[in-house]
Design a protein that fits this description.
Elements: H1 6-24, H2 32-44, H3 52-58, H4 78-84, H5 89-115, H6 119-127, H7 130-138, H8 142-157, H9 161-170, H10 176-187, H11 191-230, H12 239-243, H13 249-270, H14 274-288, H15 301-308, H16 315-323, H17 327-335, H18 343-359, H19 364-367
Helix pairs in contact: 1-6, 1-7, 2-3, 2-4, 5-6, 5-8, 8-9, 9-11, 10-11, 10-14, 13-14, 14-15, 14-18, 16-18
Length: 380
Amino acid sequence: MLRKDLDAYVFLAILNAAVFFLFSSPQLKLDYKAFYSAGRAAMASPARAYDPDQQFSSAGLWNSRDTALTYYHPPHELLLLGPLSLLPYRTSLAVWRMLSVVCFVLATLLLARTYELPFKRVFSFSAAIFGVTFCLLEGQDSLLMLLLLSASLYFAQRRSDLAAGCLLGVSLFKPQIPIIIAVAMLVSGRRRFALSFACTAAVIGTASFAVIGGQGLRQMLDLLRTAEMREVPSQMISLRGLFSFFPNGQLLSVIASAGLIASFVLVWRKLENVAALYGSAILVGALSAFHFHGQDVSMLVIPMLLLARKSQHGFTTEAAMWSLLLSPLFLFLLYWGVPGLLALSVLVLTLRVWRDVYAEGNTFRSAMPPVPSANLSING
C-alpha cells in the first residue's frame, strides 16, 4: 500500500486541507481557546489553573459560559501552554500550530527510521490522514501526543526502556492510550519499561499535586465531569461511539472494551515485536477510550503504518485504512452527528492485527526490521 500510492497520499493531504478550510472552518470550535485560557490562568495563579471562573475570565475569549470550553488535562502540559499564553491569542495560536507541524515532521521521521521506510512515503501517508489536518485547525494537542508516542516507540525498539518509559509517562496528558501501551509492555515482559513509566507518572503526579493542591485537583475532576456530561457519545470514534446507536450502549461499550483488552492480553503475552505491541495497544486504547475524537485519529498513523508496510492485506483492511484518510467522509458523518461509525474502521484494523499475531503466529516478527542495539541517538 505504501509503495504504490504516493501520489494519491499527496493528493489526499491537499484535499483534506482544502476540505477542512472550506467547509469546517466557519464552524470550528477551536479547542486552543481552552488551552490558551488555562495557560493564562496558570500563569496568573498555578493553584487556580482549574478554577472555572479563572479560566473563563483570564483571556477574555468567551462570550458566555454556555459556549466556553474548559481545560481539564493533567497540569504538566501547562508547562508548555503557560508561556505560549503570554503572547497575543492569534500569535499564540499560530506558534502552537507551527510547533504542531514540527511535532508531526519529527514524529514521521522517527517512524520512518523505526519501520525502515522512506521518509517521504511515511510523511505523505501520515499527512493524508484526516486527523492531522483536523488537529492543526482545531489547535489540539494530538500531534504532540503523536511525537511522544513515536519517540517512545523508537527508543523501545532499540531496547532503551528507560527513555521509552519516561517519554510515554510524559504523554499522560491524554492517558487513555499510554496506560494501555504500558500494560501491553508489562504483560510482554518489559518490566524495566513499565517501571520507568510508573516512576515518571508518579513524579509528574506528585509535582502536579504540589502545585495545584487538593482544591485544584477537585476542580480539575469537576471540569472533567462537566465536560463529560456535555459530550455526545456518537461523536466518539470508539466503541463508546459505535454502541451509542444501541439501547444500553454505554454498558455494551464497557463490556466490549473489557473483552477487547482481555483478548489482547493473551496476544501481548507472547508478542515480542515492539512495533506490533505499540500498534495493537494504540488501537485497543482508541477503541476502549471514553474520549477519542477526530483529531485523535492522527495517532493511528503508528498502527496504520504497521499494516500498510506489509505487502499483502485483505480488501476489508485496505478499505478501513482508506476510510481514515478521507476528510469528506468524516465531515459527512460529522454533519449527520454519527462520526462514531468510523470506529468500525478502527475495529477492522484491530481485528486484523489480532488475527495476524494470534492466529498466524507473530507474523510481524518477519515483517519488521531487526532490533538495533541500544542507542539514544536519533540516528540510531
